[in-house]
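Lab notebook, bench 4. Still working through the backlog of constructs that have no structural model yet. Next entry is a single chain of 452 residues. Request: give me the structure tokens for it.
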Amino acid sequence: MARILIVDDERSMCQLLEIAFRKDGHQVETALRGDLAKRKLESQIFDLVISDIRMPDLTGLDLLQHIRTISPETYVILITAYATIDSAVQAVNLGAYRYIIKTDKLMEELRAAVERALTESALRSENRLLRRELSRVRTDEIVGRDQKMKEVLELVQTLGPTQSTVLILGESGTGKELVARAIHKYSLRADKAFVSINCGAFPDTLLESELFGYLKGAFTDAGGNKKGIFETADGATLFLDEISETSPAMQVKLLRVLQEKQIRPLGATEDVPVDVRIIAATNRELKTLVSEGKFREDLFYRISVIPVRLPPLRERKGDLEPLARHFTVKYSRQAGRGTLRLSAEILRLLQTHDWPGNVRELENTIEQAVALTPEKEKQLSVERVRDAVLSGVTEEVTLEPEGMDFEQRIAEIEKQYLTQALVRATGVRTKAAELLKMSYRSFRHYAQKHQI
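Model written out:
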């Protein structure tokens, strides 16, 4: 379905084309004068304009120039009963998509031209989305042998073919986007684009224009009409990462999209229907934010039709070894070298760490260790892995201006030292106890206290 504007000073021609293209499933607007067409173009975004050339107040060529200025992505087909070489040349030079003479084959030629234009437009939109996502595409499959991850993957395969909105919950680095891509892969939209946007990475005004699009002049830098992600991704899957970071005003707009299946570009006066499957994600507890009045309850229930909770890496340590091997293969290949081996000592070392950064932290650790392991070595360096793990553990102690929970902070510091000692001792507790100048019994007590 496309949004088409028909401009002709002959009412009968407008009516004929409107009926024909509405029957084909398109949204159609008409204008009997060029100035009325300009007004519609300044309040809506059209995919295509079909305009007569000879009109009393504004010619089709003048209208074409105006469209090229405010909406350069809109296709324009000019029709005329008075064809001349001069007008045809002008039309081509000004960027008309087609120049068609009004004959008894007008409808046949118009339909063919519209179909080609909309096919090109769809390909252009898809290419734009692909370019947008190119730097974010993750080709690695989800690695999950642990029972908790197997249950997640089973749920992904079950809900993929549905049209339901999905909310993915989990700490930072647990792989929420990978799971969202897997849902898309199993969905009926798998042949369409997977489009993602981090809601926390944009100020509110920029996020709105990015999602909903805008008309020329809607704000200071709006130099022309632009479709937003919702409209461009029609028929596809849209992943809204960190949805908890949206403002109350944006939450209202997102709720409206989910309820009405329509968006309104900035500066527009007309709604645009959209068919987009939403997958949202957050690393925060939305129920808590709802109770605190920081997130709309009605939006929460709209996006959490099917919640998927990802376990942190510390709760799925059965995946540590396969993940470590996966990343070692990946980064060894990227470095143009044979795959480095993982020793039992390294695997024990990885098991001792709590992985607060989850899978992302593990990946960064392996990538760093591969990069720093000497070229002549065939095995991943234990020292480099240990250094990479320790680089993610902080010993800094600060007193915040608003104060702190002293006992909780001391417990955190205790846990950090215990973890560092275990890392340096490659998991051997007696050695870790010696490093901390304490008895093995005391070390065991603290390890049990902090569930290490």
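Notes after review: The CA atoms of residues 244 and 282 lie 6 Å apart. The first strand starts at residue 3 and ends at 7. Flag for follow-up if needed.
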